[in-house]
From TrEMBL:
Domain of life: Eukaryota
Entry keyword Transferase: yes
GO cellular component terms, A-Z: nucleolus
Molecular function per GO: rRNA (adenine) methyltransferase activity
Keywords, comma-separated and alphabetical: Methyltransferase, S-adenosyl-L-methionine, Transferase
Protein name: Uncharacterized protein
Amino acid sequence: MESSSRRKISRSRKLKRSKFLHMDRAQCLKSSRSLITEWHCLEKRLLNAKCPREIASVQERMDEMGGLGRYQDASIAGHSKAAAKFNSAKWVITCLRRRQDKYRLLDVGALSNHYLPYSSWIDCTAMDLKPRHSSVLEQDFFTYEPGQNRFDVVVLSLILNFVACKAKRGLMIRLAADLLADSESILVIVLPKACLDNSRYLDNERFINGLEVYGLQPVLPLCKVTAKLSLWILKKGVPKQSHDSRQKIIRSGSNRNNFSITF
């Protein structure tokens, strides 16, 4: 009887701990996503601000929130478990064939350099606004000056969804496409699945049509969708001459998100 009672108490404690951890995770997600939303709103205000007083006010609020470092922490915590554990490098290398010359790879928004284990055949330039590893270059991609450098692979993994402005998302893709060395080079884009599956304004078809403006075509056999992520391998061809860039509602409903890209 005593042994049975102890087992029941043990199971009860485990159940309570499980509920607590689940609740703690839920609270963490809610808090992180709230901070991310406010940060994006502040970025938009900062982008459009013309008055020095308003600029100072926005920057002061960003500092109060903990600055870019706190935003990055929230970005990591705000991912789903699947996205938080996702390492794009492990997927990217499955799409590449080893060759005699090293691949020149640019990883944008990389808190750490996930390609170091593959340095024998991949020469990786990893960059981030506030890197967490000494091997990562502290650099704003939008002001990056590559000179004559071009890359065989450019990776935008779970970074476009954290760019606050839809116009800057399109600009980021265009700049990345311009850095591709030739028609055999690839651009890797990884997005949360909801960005295309649950957006009011964007779906797979409109996303592909927009990419064509920069001459980007999906390599469909290599593209994939998981339960939480949408993964794209793109090659550069001839840019499309015209594109309807007007934002249109293609899905209705209060549960939709507002993710969009201006191509």
